[in-house]
Amino acid sequence: MIDLHSHILPGLDDGSSSLAESLEMARLAVADGTTHMACTPHIVPGMYENGSANIARAVKEFEQALRRAAIPLALYVGADVHIAPDLPEQLALGSVPTLNRSRYFLFEPPHHVLPPRLEDLALRLINAGFVPILTHPERLTWIKANYDIVERLNAIGCLVQLTADSIVGAFGRTALYYSEKLIDEGRVDIIASDTHGATRRRPGLSQAVAAAAKRCGEDEARNMVLKRPGEILANRPLEPVGKARSKKPSPGNAGRFAGLGRLLKGGTA
């Protein structure tokens, strides 16, 4: 499986606090079936002043540590990017990283306050050639009164990513309710761990995949942790499933899963 959202790099944000913890997180992820992971520390102006250069450096250092520890986990550069007015310009300059230098990036709104003109910012990003991946909308406290915003962001081209723990109820009833609602409506493109530690918010996708499969089928649940994340890392065109959910689903995907190695060829491992 491919995990596109993690805070596994040590010392960069509120995730892993040490190399030892990062290595344990990697072991847990691999034991659960994760083979590829995007390293996506927070970028929050005034709080977590990360950028492409220091994240890439940290990924390289962690790759070396994984090799020394014989942990078979392929890493990719990315970031959990908090909204900012100049975000299109920062992405275009390359100072804020996308996922594996693709057109796709993790797009994180504030958790407790719906910012004004969020759709306008998303449209600016899309018109600039980027594809926002809306992170964990099920956990945003403003979703109750503003679910239509999530629907509209999805309709204009934002992908939707759920947190694995939300789907199994670890974030409470509200996050579980909206996870199931989004899955049932056919709006979920990606499941990711958003792991922050080896003991709290541990890595792992398999339980969430099993829970999602009961609602949308095994093939579609696997698409959320393998096919679509692979296409994102390979920078292939990908339309949100929410925009095309009325279309007839294609047959089984087993043959396409077999080509994952070719799909990711050329990525940073």
UniProtKB/TrEMBL annotation:
It is an enzyme of class 3 (hydrolase). Residues 237-269 are annotated as: Disordered. InterPro entries: Caps_polysacc_synth_CpsB/CapC (IPR016667), Pol/histidinol_Pase-like (IPR016195). It catalyses: O-phospho-L-tyrosyl-[protein] + H2O = L-tyrosyl-[protein] + phosphate. Keywords: Hydrolase. It comes from the Bacteria. Its EC number is 3.1.3.48. One of its GO terms (molecular function) is manganese ion binding. Belongs to the metallo-dependent hydrolases superfamily. CpsB/CapC family. PANTHER family: TYROSINE-PROTEIN PHOSPHATASE YWQE. This is protein-tyrosine-phosphatase.
